[in-house]
Design goal:
The complex is a heterodimer of chains A (about 325) and B (about 200). With about 325 residues, chain A is an alpha/beta fold. In chain A, about 35% of the residues lie in helices and about 15% in strands. Chain A is built from eleven helices and nine strands. Chain A has a five-stranded parallel β-sheet with strand order 7-6-5-8-9. A four-stranded parallel β-sheet of chain A has the order 2-1-3-4, sandwiched between helices. In chain A, α1 packs across α5, α1 crosses α11 and α2 crosses α11. By secondary structure, chain B is an alpha/beta fold. Chain B has a domain of about 130 residues: Rossmann fold, CATH 3.40.50. Chain B is built from six helices and eight strands; from the N terminus they run βαβαβαβαβββαβα. Classes of the chains: A alpha/beta (about 325), B alpha/beta (about 200). The interface between A and B is medium-sized, with 31 and 30 residues.
Chain lengths: ~325, ~200
């Protein structure tokens, strides 16, 4: 028995990183390479039978292409049946409550519900009362846990490749999160993930987009991009969320570009080995200049590839761990 | 409360020389049976199937002049006990399936240390089939414990024994455990505990 390598997964749902400890995050990261290998098979079938005969419902109340596609593909690569419900086609617009809608979906024997919702806490409220495994695919300004997990996995892979050491973890890695921290559930989940894994996180952006008291989460705060990029191993540009009125919180797009855009100019302040990340979709030439987004330091497309593998891991762990289902 | 400390005793089934001789014998048999030896590929099942497959490949290379390529098979993603909660019990940190050759039309020799229920081999065959259509699949194992739950047999076998419920077989290899040996462990339940 290799008991040292065995760890139990006990969570029924994935609502936020805040509810996870370091060991649970590492279980997810360590389980992911085998799923990455499934997607990268050169011959045969890019599928494994782990969720055969089970139903995954993608329930999206906000527009999303990347995340929804990624979850759908992850479910399909695990051989699950999938169903998509979008806000416009859901009965919520006819006045049904979330609980009632979910109770009706569950009456058709679902196993996993992937929920994106504009209200922070929506997945949390549902998870407590429903038997399906709930995965938060982004709730309001709260969390986007699978994004942060795929980001951490991507950082770890890059770090291991850089040093040629497949055992390295994120301890003492220096990560700069740039841009709209205030409205970003990606930033919040990343901060929880990275601080739990021992990384040093600096958040940087216009003062109006840095939440007051963000230091309490264990991060360093600055409005000076140069300061943030100095010594950064990872430069993570966040999307300026025009749909969340962020643009009203700084004087002009031009000023943002001048002070906070990651481009060839600003990259000069960072170490040569620094990688550039972005959760997508990119506002080209706003958060990132085109040459940097498509340049050698960018791992943005690796993030997308890893996203499917990480989501396969999460679905597998939740659905195949015998975690108690409330009924 | 009575102490339940049970004693564990073991018998050496194979020492290092016996393990080496067995691997040589299996390699010879594989070479003899496969006229189209150059279509042969080996897949070692994690963990100890991998070093065994490496050694077999090296011997086959000596005998035939063709050293077959060796890949790694994890089988974790094809287990049949996951509905019952297996994923939470054992998080796989042993590594993942990896091979860079095609299995289409080839003879695939699966290599594992212990053959018991046969469920790992069922999973391994399903996994291989997802990568392509081999001409045939063969199985080589160091030990057969004879407690089969599926109709699966080894084509090449080192040692065959019937184990009792309180016995278990422990294969140790230089690459994974620092020595070559096959041990039979037996748990002795103290007589005090038996009747109560």
């Amino acid at each position: 028995m290799e008991s040292a390598a065995l760890t139990r997964w006990t969570k029924k749902d994935l609502i936020g990183i805040r509810e996870l400890n370091r060991e649970e995050i590492e279980i997810i990261l360590d389980t992911t390479p085998q799923f990455l290998a499934v997607s990268q098979r050169v011959s045969g079938i890019k599928k494994v039978p782990l969720l055969q005969g089970r139903l995954v419902v993608n329930w999206f109340h906000e527009p999303s292409t990347r995340t929804r596609t990624s979850f759908e593909l992850a479910a399909k690569r695990l051989s699950a049946d999938t169903l998509s419900i979008t806000a416009s086609s859901s009965s919520t617009v006819k006045g049904e409550t979330l609980h009632d809608t979910l109770a009706n979906i569950e009456a058709m024997s679902t196993d996993i519900i992937v929920l994106r919702h504009g209200c922070s806490g929506a997945p949390h409220i549902l998870a407590a009362d429903h038997s399906s495994h709930i995965i938060n695919a982004g709730d309001g300004r709260h969390e986007h846990p699978t994004q942060a997990l795929l980001d951490a996995f991507t950082m770890r892979e890059a770090l291991r490749k850089l040093h040629g050491n497949p055992a390295l973890n994120l301890d003492n890695l220096k990560v700069a999160l740039i841009g709209d921290i205030e409205h970003s559930r990606v930033a919040r989940s990343n901060i929880h993930t990275l601080t739990r894994l021992g990384a040093n996180v600096t958040v940087c952006g216009p003062a109006t987009l840095l939440p007051r008291g963000v230091e309490k989460l264990g991060v360093t705060r600055t409005t000076d991009l140069r300061e943030a990029l100095k010594n950064a191993d990872v430069i993570y540009a966040l999307r300026i969320q025009r749909e969340r009125q962020a643009s009203a919180l700084f004087p002009s797009i031009r000023e943002y570009v001048k002070l906070f855009r990651i481009d060839r100019e600003s990259l000069r302040f960072a170490p040569d080995h620094a990688i550039v990340m972005h959760p997508g979709p990119i506002n080209r030439d706003l958060e990132l200049s085109t040459d940097v987004a498509d340049g050698p330091q960018s791992v943005i497309l690796e993030q997308v590839t890893n996203g499917v593998a990480v989501r396969m891991t999460v679905m597998h762990l939740l659905a195949n761990s015998g975690t108690s289902r409330i009924t | 409360m009575m102490s339940n400390a049970s004693e564990v005793e073991y018998t050496v089934l194979m020492d290092a020389d016996a393990v080496a001789a067995t691997i040589r014998r299996i390699a010879l048999a594989v070479a003899n049976d496969n006229e189209d030896i150059e279509s042969l590929v080996l897949l070692g099942i994690l963990r100890r199937g991998k070093p065994l497959a490496d050694r077999l490949a090296s011997h086959i290379g000596h005998v035939t002049g063709y050293r077959p390529p060796v890949g790694i098979l994890s089988t974790t993603l094809y287990r049949d006990d996951l509905h019952a909660g297996g994923a939470g019990e054992a998080v796989n940190r042993r590594g993942e399936t990896h091979f860079d050759f095609s299995v289409d039309g080839r003879t695939v020799l699966l290599v594992d240390d212990v053959l018991a229920a046969g469920r790992t081999i069922r999973a391994a065959m399903d996994e291989v089939m997802d990568y392509g259509r081999p001409r045939r699949i063969q199985l080589a194992c160091l030990i057969d414990r004879r407690c089969r739950e599926l109709p699966i047999q080894a084509d090449y076998l080192g040692y065959d024994l019937v184990t009792k419920p309180e016995e278990w077989v422990c294969v140790r290899l230089e690459e994974t455990d620092g020595e070559d040996a096959v041990l039979l462990h037996r748990r002795f339940i103290p007589s005090d505990d038996k009747g109560n």
